[in-house]
Amino acid sequence: MEETKDYQHLRSPQKTESLPTHQTVELKFSVPWGHIAAKVWGDPGGEPILAVHGVEDNAATFDTLIPLLLQLVGRPMYVVCVDLPGHGHSSPLAPGILYRFTDMPGCLHRVISQLGWYRFHYLGHSLGGLLGLHFVASYPNLVEKLIVIDALTFTMYPRHYHSNILRAYAEKLLELEKKVGAGTIQPSYTLDQALHKLAHSRGTKMTEAGIKALASRGLRQVEGHDNLYTFSRDNRLKFFVFPVVNIEEAVQVASEVKCQLLIVTGKESLRTEKGSDNEAVLTALTKHCSYLKHYVVDGDHDVHLNFPERLAPLVATFLCKPRSSL
């Protein structure tokens, strides 16, 4: 069951009852271009956790993990799963603007400021995990514990690729704008077609529960049609702008992460090959974090969604580790 509320109603824990682990509320945070939406689990008086999804996904990527996690932790938690701009139920950015990684930490800080949080835990998958590492480096006093699922660093390109990549993104944006200007209609699908497309466009095997979870926020019904849907994500996300960095810059960011850190990697993702850039980043994190655990579990990039029982005990144990007061 979902209930829609504005976030201000949840600012005072004594005024809001704890939600059962299977119930959620919807929040909206005001931003200059519209709103950032969030799906919230747990007790507003509990330990705060910000959960952030991967690119072209949405807050429902944690739908199978969070209920199990709340049961295992055994104490009140308050988990705010955001839809990043242009994803899920959140507003898209203004026309003519590319979605850039470097703008996202500031978007998350807007949410944190409106929640009134001064100390919290951070849970991120893929893009959300990378954002977590950079958020902690930028705001070192805000995050108590950081949980990163299947992410460590960006794809490394030679520096001379930088101009080519930026030009390609700009050209793709102009091409998309021409299609929109020419009246190109966004494709629509029956529900079965949309679910099939969602399942087969990711490059990973998805469970039925995982597909339906992402579809719950990733599809929008076409007005006037009972069984036609479009994808709710902004088409500009297909060319989301990640930073072009070298290994020295990636290691520098890792060296600025001082909080307690849990990294969980899917074995089939092959994101920790010996001698890889990821290994250099992991070495820097191990050196500078106050505490670090790294687990490799059976599964691929979406293991948190497909097989949450493989991650939930690890995350719960990490959250229950003695810590300073929030």
What this model shows, in words?
- The protein starts with a strand and ends in a 6-residue tail after the last helix.
- It folds into two domains: 2-158 and 241-320, Alpha/Beta hydrolase fold, catalytic domain (Rossmann fold), CATH 3.40.50; 165-238, no CATH class.
- The radius of gyration is 19 Å and the shape is globular.
- The protein contains ten helices and eleven strands.
- The chain has helices at 65-73, 104-115, 127-138, 161-181, 191-200, 208-218, 247-255, 277-288, 303-306, 312-320, and strands at residues 2-4, 24-31, 34-42, 47-52, 77-82, 120-125, 143-149, 219-221, 229-231, 260-266, 291-297.
- The chain is 33% helix and 20% strand.
- It is an alpha/beta fold and 326 residues long.
Provide the number of structural domains. Answer: 2
Question: Which band does the percent of strand residues land in?
Answer: 15-25%
Sketch the topology as an H/E string, one letter per element.
EEEEHEHEHEHHHEEHEHEHH
Number of strands: 11
What is the CATH top level name of the largest domain? Alpha Beta
Report Rg.
19 Å
| Helix percentage range | 25-40%
List keywords for this structure.
single chain, 326 residues, alpha/beta, Rossmann fold, nine-stranded mixed β-sheet, two-stranded antiparallel sheet, 10 helices, 33% helix, disordered N terminus, hydrolase activity, hydrolase, AB_hydrolase_sf, AB hydrolase-1 domain-containing protein, AB_hydrolase_fold
SSE layout:
Layout: E1 2-4, E2 24-31, E3 34-42, E4 47-52, H1 65-73, E5 77-82, H2 104-115, E6 120-125, H3 127-138, E7 143-149, H4 161-181, H5 191-200, H6 208-218, E8 219-221, E9 229-231, H7 247-255, E10 260-266, H8 277-288, E11 291-297, H9 303-306, H10 312-320
Parallel strand pairs: 1-2, 4-5, 4-6, 6-7, 7-10, 10-11
Antiparallel strand pairs: 2-3, 3-5, 8-9
Helix pairs in contact: 1-10, 5-6, 7-8
